[in-house]
Amino acid sequence: MLRSEVRTATIGINEIYPTIQGEGLLAGTPSLFIRIQGCNLRCPWCDQPSALSFKEEKKSLEELLNIISSYPHRHVVITGGEPFTEENLHLLVKELLKMGKSVQIETNGTLWQEGLEEVANLIHITCSPKAVASWYIRSEIRKYAKELKFVVDEELELKDLLRFEDFLKRSCVVLQPEGNKERFVKKALELQDRLLSLGYEVRVIPQLHKFLGLK
Ligand code: SF4
3-state DSSP call for residue 107? Predict the structure, then answer.
């Protein structure tokens, strides 16, 4: 039986679909993607323009959980848009954990939500800092994120990466060439070499789902 708080909650969803996780440290994992509606930033190369605006129409959390349980996937990726713009994100995460799901949140790192601290160590938070936010990330994200993923484009420079020494020391930084373009693959490999010479090991991981022709 769902608690009344959960029974009455709604979630702004852009889309739900099964695929594999194509990015970052968990690449290759069969995953159910829950794309939250709305984002607080506007990155120039954003590949999810349909998820950027906030729409009035929402799904009840109960209905969403029923949809999720109709899929066999253990791993659920909550992405966007920006998941932290959804005020009931913490309720969704807690219900998914109760269902025995492994939960990943992909965030730009600029927002946080009360109520997530108690489960933050049980989930995989992937933070992708953004140039449009001057690479700012919240202290809670810095504390709980298990992975920092940087899109390598014209703008990203070594000095931007060096702001995140705590993550570099833990070897949990991923460089993702924008759009899998050749010039950004080359740049990512150069950045990897430069970081290696400074004593930091980072991974270069292109978008695997695109190679496989998946969404
Ligand atoms: S933070 Fe993500 S969803 Fe938002 S504009 Fe940037 S790339 Fe798009």
Answer: strand
90-143 tens-digit pLDDT: 999 999 999 999 999 999 999 999 999 999 999 999 999 999 999 999 999 999
Two tokens at 164? 């995140």
- Residue 105 DSSP class: E
pLDDT of residue 1: 54
pLDDT, tens digit, 9 for 90 and up, residues 8-58: 999 999 999 999 999 999 999 999 999 999 999 999 889 888 888 888 789
Tell me the residue range of the domain where 55 lies: 4-211
Strand order in the sheet with 30-36: 13-20, 30-36, 75-79, 102-107, 124-127, 147-152, 173-177, 203-204
Where does residue 147 fall: left (phi above 0), alpha (psi -120 to 50 degrees), or beta otherwise? beta
Residue 95's CATH number: 3.20.20.70
Residue 175 has pLDDT above 70, yes or no: yes
What does the DSSP assignment read for 54-98?
--S--EEHHHHHHHHHTS--SEEEEESS-GGGSTTHHHHHHHHHH
Atom of ligand 1 at shortest range from CA of 132: 6
**What is the distance in A from the centroid of ligand 1 to the CA of 202?**
23
Q: Please tell me whether the overall predicted TM-score, pTM, comes out greater than 0.85 for this model.
A: yes
| 160 CA → ligand 1 middle, Å | 18
Give me the number of domains the chain comprises: 1
